[in-house]
Automatic annotation (TrEMBL):
It comes from the Bacteria. This is Acetyl-CoA acyltransferase. PANTHER family: ACETYL-COA C-ACYLTRANSFERASE, BLR7806 PROTEIN. Residues 276-396 form the Thiolase C-terminal domain. It comes from Branchiibius hedensis. Pfam families: Thiolase_C, Thiolase_N. CDD domains: thiolase (cd00751).
Length: 397
């Protein structure tokens, strides 16, 4: 079987996903075009060699409709001969794009392929895709007569099941900001972040290169003063076990962003004179309880480790998407993972969760951390709506 390798991976610095955010005045195709251009320029790669651009995007409506991957590559100046597709596995969309890209290389369907993702949550808000329609249908309602719930309630259920109290959640969240702030001031993000020209509040054109969502001064004591975000009388009656501990402070913020990874066959990389940064070892995608929803990273990790013939102690760094603080904490407890190896440069609570972009964003942070620390194996996993998760294991080269 051919070997799929990661040649490079880049991302934009996060922008707050609301009006006035650093990237909110920028069309989402421009966000994605920027990272696509940077990816081929950094590798001095002729974009005509790219055989497909597989793009993750969750809210595929409005400015993100009609195959944003194709629009972005045309905007980036790629040859018209380069195709693209846009996929949606919810929060794990660009991680799934990586899986499809690497698996395509391993199967011989591609020599050179880009996996990427984009989400402008300021311009195409959450919920824009269904537009108030019943996207579940009568059979799902029949199977779950009490109704499925949104992710905030699922995060509360995870916290309850694993007995994670408010203090633990807030301490973890503050640590995410502190780790991300330390990584930023230490230059740890410099290799993965590419600049994008934006217009600031004064009308000046500047390069946006620093994650806007990181709050270096955040403390657990400050977070303790925030009110629960999802408590309602109806949900309180349905789930009496919930203690209502999920707040804006221990959840990932709405974010704008884009990221992209260049993946190819190892022999082709050698022929092109490119030095791969990592190889893909194993992949997993699993489903789990759609009401608990956020627990699938646990079986996905177990499956990816089994396929790789590795144990969790063999993994030097883990990136577990911080949709909500209970997700990585429950994962850590269930898997038996070392806390210092978990999201060592901060996670989505600090760096933001630009939905369709997050999978390749995690990959960028993971490979750079492995290189900086000399680690060999890295694992990333991501909870996804309706109770799914992807897991990926890479080996630094």
């Amino acid at each position: 079987m051919r070997e799929a390798v990661l040649v490079d991976v880049v991302r934009l610095a996060s922008g707050k996903g609301k009006p006035g955010g650093a990237l909110s005045a920028t069309h989402p195709t421009v966000l994605l075009s920027t990272v696509l251009q940077a990816l081929v320029q950094r590798s001095d790669l002729d974009p005509a060699l790219v055989e497909d651009v597989i793009t993750g995007c969750v809210q595929q409506s409005g400015e993100q409709a009609m195959n944003i991957g194709r629009s972005a590559l045309l905007g980036a100046g790629f040859p018209e001969s380069v195709p693209a597709t846009t996929i949606n596995r919810q929060c794990g969309s660009s991680q799934q794009a990586v899986h499809f890209a690497a698996q395509g290389v391993m199967a011989g369907a591609y020599d050179v392929v880009i996996a990427c993702g984009v989400e402008s949550m300021s311009r195409v808000p959450m919920g824009a895709s269904p537009q108030g329609q019943d996207y579940e249908g009568p059979q799902v309602h029949e199977r779950y007569p009490d109704g499925l719930v949104h992710q905030g309630i699922s995060a509360e259920l995870v916290a309850s099941r694993w007995k994670l109290d408010r203090e633990q959640l807030d301490e973890y969240s503050a640590r995410s900001h502190q780790r991300a702030a330390h990584a930023a001031t230490s230059g740890f993000f410099d290799r993965e972040v590419v600049g994008i020209q934006v217009t600031d509040a004064n009308g000046a054109t500047i390069a946006h290169t620093v994650d806007e969502t990181v709050r270096p001064s955040t403390t657990a004591e400050q977070l303790a003063g925030l009110k629960p975000s999802f408590q309602t009388p109806d949900f309180s009656a349905r789930f009496p076990e919930i203690e209502w501990s999920i707040t804006a402070g221990n959840s990932s913020p709405l974010t704008d962003g884009a990221s992209a990874a260049l993946i190819m066959d190892s022999v082709v990389a050698q022929r092109l004179g490119l030095i791969p940064r990592a190889r893909f070892v194993s992949f997993a995608v699993t489903g789990d309880d759609p009401i608990m929803m956020l627990t699938a990273p646990i079986p996905a990790t177990q499956q990816a480790l089994k396929r790789a013939g590795l144990g969790i102690d063999d993994i030097d760094a883990y990136e577990v998407n911080e949709a909500f603080a209970p997700v990585p904490l429950a994962w850590q407890r269930e898997i038996g993972a070392h806390p210092e190896r978990l999201n060592a440069r901060g996670g989505a609570i600090a760096l933001g969760h630009a939905l369709g972009s997050s999978g390749t964003r995690l990959l960028a942070t993971l490979v750079n951390h492995l290189e900086a620390t000399g680690g060999r194996y890295g694992l990333q996993t991501m909870c996804e709506a309706a109770g799914m998760a992807n897991a990926t294991i890479i080996e630094r080269l």
